[in-house]
Amino acid sequence: MSFAGMDCDQFPGLAVMAACKAAFAFTAYYLAPAPSHRDPGWMGQRAALAAQGWGFAPVFVGQQTVGPGSHIVTDAQGFSDGARAGALMEQEGFAPGLCVYLDLENGPPFRSPQADYVRAWRAAVQSSGFAAGVYCSHAMAADVAAANPGVRIWAFRLAALASSTAEPPFPTPEVAVCGFAGAAIWQRADAVTISVGGHELIVDLDVATTPDPSAP
Q: Most buried of 16, 51, 52, 87 (most Cβ within 10 A)?
């Protein structure tokens, strides 16, 4: 069984999230400030969203090797960023043992110095008492997982959609068909305009093997 999730980097507001809950089991939750995501809009919303029944995929947008954002890709920075992710999880009231996902926007290959950065980030997150996950391309997910035993994978592999707009119910295909059989979450579409409960917003569409991808 798979469960539908949404990912919106700008917090839509509690009223919109309440309307979306009928269509989704979980939401991405952006921790900030992070190196490559400074907007604090999601911060402070966890308790209210939990009361609405949401599951979570907490995201820490770390150092990047391509595109926008910060690019300090070293093992020392990885440990610092991992400690920061753990502190933000604690600040937001996420219980010890829950999983936070490091956002990597590049495609393969996965190699040093990025591999060193990710290993150090994972170690610091685990030292903070939380579980570590990585959001990455399906094409390098196997390498990320091999270098980081036990890490959860949120793989992105964007499927071609017939339309850039969608309404519920949203499809929930098997996560394993994303290209990495061990994935916990699959981001299957991006920048889709959805209409839910009289609200329109632009989101990425996900599916997961559990309704709360942060849970142990």
A: 16
